Amino acid sequence: MIIKSIKLTNFRNHSQYSLECNNETSLILGENGCGKTSVLEAIYILTRGKSFRATDSDILKRGTNFYRIELEFTNGYKNIATYDGKNKTFIVQDKKTKRLPKKNKYPVVLFLPSDLNLISHSPSRRRDYFDRIFSQFSETYSTSLSKYEKALKQRNELLKNDFLTKEALFSWNILLAKYGADLYNFRKNFIQEFNHKITNIYHFIADNNDEIEITYKTDATDMTDNKYLHQLEQSFDKDSYLGHTSFGIHRDDYIFQFNHEAADGSASRGETRSIILALKFIEASLIYEKLQLKPIILLDDVFSELDETRRHCLVKNFKDNQVIITSVEMITEHNL
User: Fold this and answer.
1) What is the pTM of this model?
2) What domain count does the chain have?
C-alpha cells in the first residue's frame, strides 16, 4: 500500500498541514521544532492505530478542542482519525470505530534518532522497541501483550492494599501466567530469527567479520503456565512488601553482544550505528517474509546521524519501499 497524501488539523503545532507523497521517496524539510516528526506520528497513528510517543491529550494543539488527521492511499482508500478532547474515533471506509481495525493496519518501519542509542538505553526502552516490532509480525503477540499489561496493572494496584490476601490475587496470577508464558515463547522465537540474520546483515553494512548477537534475558526461562503461576504465588510476601510484581516478563531485557562481549561499552559509535541499521533491515525483511507486505519506511532526521557509507546503505536497502524522510537539510544524491 502506498500513501498518496496526509492532512492534519490541530495536530501538535499544526493548525493546518497537508503533504502530497511520492510513490518512492518524500522529503519533509524544516528546522528543528517546526513539526516534522509530528507528520510521521500522524502517519503512524493511521497505519498502526496509536502514537509512538504520546497520548491524544498531549497531541491536541494547545487552545483547540479537537484534532483530525486524514491519510489517503493511492488505491483510493482513506483512514481518518478524530479526537474531541475525550475520545478518539477512526473512520475507515465510512465506518466509525474506536480502534483502527486489524485489516486496515499496515506495517511501518520507524527510525528515530533515539533508536541509535538503543543499546545503551534502559531495559524498558528496549522492551518497548521490540514489543512494537513483534506486534507488527503477530496480532496474537499484540493481543497477549495488551492483556498481560492490563492484568499486571490490576495486580499491582491490589498489592498496594495493606490487607491483601493471596486469594485476591489468584485470578490475576492466572492471567499473568497464561499471557506471560505465551509472550516468553514469542520473544524467544523472534529473537532467534533476528540472530539468524543479524551478523550477515551487519557484515553487509560494515564490511568486516565482527559477530553480533542479541541475548534475551528473562525471569521466565523455559516456564510453562503452571511454573509461572507457582513463581507468582511464591513471590506473594515479597510483592506485598514492595507494592509491585517483582517476577515476570515485564522485567525482560535484550542484551546486544559484540564479538561475544556486551556491545554497550565495547562497540564504537560507528559500530553501534551499524548494529541499529541491521535491526531496521531485519525488521523490514521479516515483515515481508511473514506478511508479504513491503512496509512503509519513516525516517526521522536520521541522515544527519549517519556517515556517507551508512547513508548509502540505508538508501540501497529500502529502494523498493515507500520512504518518508524528515531532515533539517536538503538530501540529494550528492550528499548521501
Assistant:
1) 0.90
2) 2
